[in-house]
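Need tokens for this chain, all 217 residues.
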Amino acid sequence: MQINILNQNNSIFNTYIAEIRDISIQRDPLRFRKNIERMGEILAYEVSKIFDYSAAEVKTPLGIANEKLPSDNVVIASILRAGLPLHQGVLNMFDRAENAFVSAYRKYTEDGEFDIHIEYISSPSLDDKTVLLVDPMLATGSSMELAYKALLDKGTPKHVHVISLIASQAGVDYIRNMFDREPISLWLGAVDEELNAKSYIVPGLGDAGDLAFGGKL
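Here are the structure tokens for all 217 residues:
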């Protein structure tokens, strides 16, 4: 499985990682969402480098230009609600992409344990398409696993690129071990070592959905 971690190299991307983590900057939800959108654009650009390309002739006012254009049929799939700003950033780069949405949430028990539940899926056919499955946080990997398996009911993708901003090492290991032989690649902003007792990434950034859209009951 190909695993790509962007903050291992120096770039402006690291500024956005720092800002979405920063507790003082997080008080501005508009800036938080915008930074996630920017990071989605950068990650989408990186993913595009390994697409299939074909030659195309483009007529200009002065002649014919030969360009290589991506030939993948792209579907962007996001896990609601936290995935929406990241989804928009990726969509900004693949503006002709189809779109899919998966509703997943943690259902907690009285003793603090939780299960992941899938409530809703809206998706086109995924047969032979390149799927970009986006979620800002890859904590335990359970939500991503269930979303991926649920999407397979809509067809067999050519390849799935999982895009997350911050992952735990445990989540990365889980996805790698679970899907090592599947056509899946991981594209991550940063990987943190710790996952606490409530399965939150440490240092992480907190609850991405609440920071982007406000708290919930």
